[in-house]
Amino acid sequence: MLSQECYKKIDRELAKYPADQRQSAVMASLAHAQVELGWLSPDTMQEVADYIGMPAIAVQEVATFYNMYNIKPVGQHKITVCTNLPCALSGGERAAKRIKDALGIGFRDTTADGKFTLMEGECMGACGDAPVMLVNNHQMCSFMSDEKIDALLEELNK
Ligand code: FES
């Protein structure tokens, strides 16, 4: 169940579009719901669909298409490593292995303590900064050497 505060944020998104185009606010609405609840359960997607006035299946289509939406529960920190070709050729695979080894998990896994989830991501538009990773969908980390990865994990583990 979304909070009134979250509904206020969704209302602000809806206000950006004509009344007969409420579905245009679905992506932002899902993002607010995810920030509040951590992930988008089927019930949450249904709630957003009901509020916006669009079919639940259409909301699910959006949520499952974009990989920044969490359609399963994730850990406290979600680390998404870009493994697309430019990053892969510039250390992305090595960076991913470093994190896998450090956390003892693979892609789409969460550590037993619920602290970290590791995801494989698509190009983040920063290929020149490879290897690139994103923390919790907001913090872009560039030129991720082994040393920088170790420092990042230590910082997030505090
Ligand atoms: S391929 Fe990794 S940011 Fe573009």
UniProtKB/TrEMBL annotation:
CDD domains with a match to the protein in the record: TRX_Fd_NuoE (cd03064)
SUPFAM superfamilies to which the protein is assigned, alphabetical: Thioredoxin-like
NCBIfam families from the UniProt entry: nuoE_fam, PRK07539.1-3
Protein's name in the database: NADH dehydrogenase subunit E
Lineage of source species: Bacteria, Pseudomonadati, Pseudomonadota, Betaproteobacteria, Burkholderiales
InterPro entries documented for this protein: NuoE-like (IPR002023), NuoE_dom (IPR042128), NuoE_N (IPR041921), Thioredoxin-like_sf (IPR036249)
Cofactor note: Binds 1 [2Fe-2S] cluster.
Known cofactor(s): [2Fe-2S] cluster
Residues reported in the UniProt entry to bind [2Fe-2S] cluster: C82, C87, C123, C127
Reaction it catalyzes: a quinone + NADH + 5 H(+)(in) = a quinol + NAD(+) + 4 H(+)(out)
One Pfam family here: 2Fe-2S_thioredx
GO molecular function: 2 iron, 2 sulfur cluster binding; metal ion binding; NADH dehydrogenase activity
Keyword terms: 2Fe-2S, Iron, Iron-sulfur, Metal-binding
Domain of life: Bacteria
Protein family (similarity comment): Belongs to the complex I 24 kDa subunit family.
